[in-house]
């Protein structure tokens, strides 16, 4: 199993209380920690407004961070989970990603999806088109980016995007272009796009849901004539880890206390409730997490992208995971 690490960027209220002047240093130091450790990749979210409620807490922009991490690290791969196609023209996005790939020495991943967060769409003036249009934009945008990365020029007279000879030089450093991760489990369209174009998928991390989405993906591959076995399937996991279950619970209580001033008591309780769900496979002791993720590995989940809500404040859980989980699953 391969492991990725989300770097706190504020979107999930994970930089609350840290002075803005110190936030880049916090993010950079965690990325460099991952670069020196057992992590294959570091990740950020492509969002502008916080969740689960919109506040005026910090949320740092994804692709700006990608460029900064490219210069601040030397080994770890750099991903977004996931870039919203409609937030940037795809020919322009392909150019941005290419430049970051070159700065990084060929370490960029492109996580891409149709987008869902209506509040920030409307706030930034994108409207909020129906899901069919958002997925249509995803499909066309992927085609444009693939052309840009492999041929150095993209042309498409599509329903949603029209580009005519958009030059993308130099090409990315990676042979065949930047690896494409299609995020989301939509069965009719998203997984069909993944089957047709992606090297990686990212969808539900609970056992039964993962197996079902995998079966749908396999079916699309069979119909399209693409290689299902060549697609790496990944999932995202919230992590709260400690030596004992009692210490895990204390960690969840600290998390709730930290976000309550920003979210309010009711939203903070709901925010933390997802860590107590039966599907929260990476919440527990090291042995419990190894057992659950080991089961997911047997089901074909080969890449776990992990989020530690307290990483900006306390690395003890992150270091425990590195020491007592990763070696048993890698």
UniProtKB/TrEMBL annotation:
Task: Name its GO BP terms in alphabetical order.
Answer: alkanesulfonate catabolic process
Residues spanning the signal sequence: none
The record's PANTHER family line, in alphabetical order, gives:
ALKANESULFONATE MONOOXYGENASE (PTHR42847), CONSERVED PROTEIN (PTHR42847:SF8)
Stated name of the protein: LLM class F420-dependent oxidoreductase
Q: Has UniProt tagged this entry with the keyword Oxidoreductase?
A: yes
Its taxonomic placement starts with: Bacteria, Bacillati, Actinomycetota, Actinomycetes, Micrococcales
Looking up SUPFAM superfamilies in the UniProt record yields: Bacterial luciferase-like
Q: Which InterPro entries match?
A: F420_OxRdatse_Rv1855c_pred, Luciferase-like_dom, Luciferase-like_sf, SsuD_RutA_monooxygenase
**What's the source species for this entry?**
Rathayibacter festucae DSM 15932
Keywords per UniProt: Flavoprotein, FMN, Monooxygenase, Oxidoreductase
Against Pfam families, the record matches this protein to:
Bac_luciferase (PF00296)
Q: Name one GO molecular function term.
A: alkanesulfonate monooxygenase activity
Q: Which residues form the Luciferase-like domain?
A: 1-302
Q: Which Gene3D superfamilies match?
A: Luciferase-like domain
